[in-house]
Q: What sequence folds into this?
């Protein structure tokens, strides 16, 4: 499904089953795991989507999982399910980067709404990552001289200044600039600069 997969992590089998049923009845694809450790074992072939995890589990808690995912650069949005007594833990989890938390027993509609928001965020992140990777590939295809001209443009230098700095004619700079626009697929100078800064900040 294009929406992505909801990865459900809970050591309570009945909770896993009811969540899978709820998600599938809302036309969402669910995969469930009996522990954070079991989930981590699947990281090599993890489908994009979001993670819904219980906060208290044996072996590795939801919080420890969040910390581990951060170390591994896994950017899937995480929603933590928590019992009433664990709200302080859930707040701690949000400080650690969790997207949202929901208290058990939860309202089905509220949970689905939070999950859909997480899936939308994951899809946006995926699109951004794909766009950046495409821009980086285009930057890699530039010749050293095109790269020099691009650096000059990003610095805000006029063609004449770039020409002087590089020891070439302003006309040659114009040719390089036109080539840059074509290679990068940029419609304007501002778009060209934005692409460069997005892919290579600093």
A:
């Amino acid at each position: 499904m294009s929406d992505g997969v909801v990865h459900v992590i809970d050591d309570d089998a009945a909770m896993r089953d009811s969540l899978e049923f709820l998600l599938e009845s809302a036309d969402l694809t669910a995969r469930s795991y009996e522990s954070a450790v079991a989930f981590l074992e699947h990281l090599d072939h993890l489908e994009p989507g979001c993670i819904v995890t219980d906060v208290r589990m044996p072996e590795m808690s939801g919080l420890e999982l969040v910390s581990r995912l951060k170390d591994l650069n896994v950017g899937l949005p995480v929603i933590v399910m928590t019992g009433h007594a664990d709200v302080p833990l859930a707040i701690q989890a949000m400080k650690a980067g969790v997207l949202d938390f929901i208290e058990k027993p939860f309202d089905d509609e509220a949970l689905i709404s939070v999950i859909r928001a997480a899936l939308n965020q994951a899809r946006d992140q995926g699109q951004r990552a794909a766009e950046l990777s495409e821009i980086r590939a285009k930057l890699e295809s530039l010749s050293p001289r095109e790269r020099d001209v691009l650096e000059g443009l990003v610095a805000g230098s006029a063609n004449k200044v770039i020409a002087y700095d590089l020891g070439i004619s302003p006309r040659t700079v114009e040719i390089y600039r036109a080539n840059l626009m074509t290679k990068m697929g940029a419609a304007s100078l501002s778009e060209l600069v934005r692409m460069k800064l997005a892919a290579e900040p600093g």
Residues 108-140 form the longest helix (33 residues).
